[in-house]
Design brief:
Helix 3 runs antiparallel to helix 4 and helix 5 runs parallel beside helix 6. Helix content is 47%, strand content 12%. The chain has 8 helices and 6 strands, in the order H-H-H-H-E-H-E-H-E-E-E-H-E-H. It has 275 residues and is an alpha/beta fold. The longest helix is centred in the N-terminal third of the chain and has 30 residues. Helix 5 links the parallel strand 1 and strand 2. It has 2 domains: 84 residues, no CATH class; 162 residues, Alpha-Beta Complex (Spore Coat Polysaccharide Biosynthesis Protein SpsA, Chain A).
């Protein structure tokens, strides 16, 4: 944009220049005003307390207790003003009124550990909630799992936990089988020995799960994933990664995919660096 403005001899209005300058300061644009407002609140409180019979120690304790609420209130006040002065910039995106299309087929992946039956049951319930709030036909859902770290390659309870997870996901898939193709999957990895930590663990933990998932979706089966009970659908274009405690609001996946699928938001790869 600055290069285009230079070539066209475009001159920004004073207000736009100020807004652009503030945006360039990054986090300081939020912290500095918030701290100043909080300081004013504390100064006003100190002026009031100085006129009372409260002793010096009482004043200090009161101001210490007030510091965090003052900072919170200052941040909220500044954000309210900033929202009015700096309206958000919206990314272009497709609406997908008729649902996510086949060319934007997406896998919602939850990297997690399976440590006991209660954890697994909770993960499966959350997966079902994600589906019910985002029931688009071209959305698929998977738990991408590891066992917990262990001193050996397999622990006594490993296979039983994996079988339980596969059974629960299978039951969930059967429950919604009438809605079309299978929508729910569990992708599990075997442990590898990590000499630096002295334990058997999932390779590179969460980062490794997502890296190997992308390899798997691109057709590379040289990963540490075990053979799944059901194959993933072909043509997965995007992966939405959620933490195990994240909630996916209603239709939010479709809106996010609409942004990802818009050509103006497509990533540009530098042929020289490959990035």
């Amino acid at each position: 944009m600055p290069e285009l403005e230079t070539r066209t001899s475009y001159h920004l209005a004073i207000g736009d220049r100020i807004r652009r300058g503030i945006r360039k300061t990054g986090l300081a644009a939020l912290l500095v005003p918030s701290l100043l407002i909080a300081a004013l609140i504390l100064t006003a409180a100190f002026s009031f307390l100085a006129s009372t019979t409260l002793g010096p120690l009482g004043v200090v304790l009161f101001l210490a207790a007030l510091a965090l609420p003052a900072l919170d209130a200052a941040g909220a006040l500044y954000r309210m003003v900033a929202d009015a002065v700096f309206p958000p910039s919206y990314l272009p995106g497709f609406e997908f009124k008729d649902g996510v299309p086949a060319h934007a087929r997406t896998l919602v992946a939850i990297p997690c550990l399976i440590t006991d039956r209660d954890v697994i049951s909770n993960l499966v319930r959350n997966l079902e909630v994600h589906y019910l709030s985002n029931p688009d036909r071209e959305l698929f859902f998977a738990l991408v799992t590891d066992w917990a770290d262990h001193v050996s390659e397999e622990a006594p309870a490993d296979r039983e936990l994996l079988a339980f997870a596969q059974s629960e996901i299978g039951a969930l898939a059967e429950k919604y089988a009438s809605a079309g193709p299978r929508r729910f999957f569990v992708l599990h990895r075997r442990r590898l020995y990590n000499p630096s930590e002295g334990v058997w663990m999932g390779w590179e933990r969460k980062r490794g799960k997502l890296h190997e998932l992308n390899l798997l979706l691109r057709g590379d089966h040289d990963t540490t994933f075990l053979e799944p009970t059901a194959p993933l659908p072909d043509g997965i274009q995007y992966v939405l990664t959620l933490d195990s405690d994240t909630r996916l609001p209603r239709d939010s996946a479709r809106m996010l995919i609409g942004k990802l699928a818009h050509p103006l938001n497509a990533p540009v790869v530098d042929p020289a660096s490959g990035r």
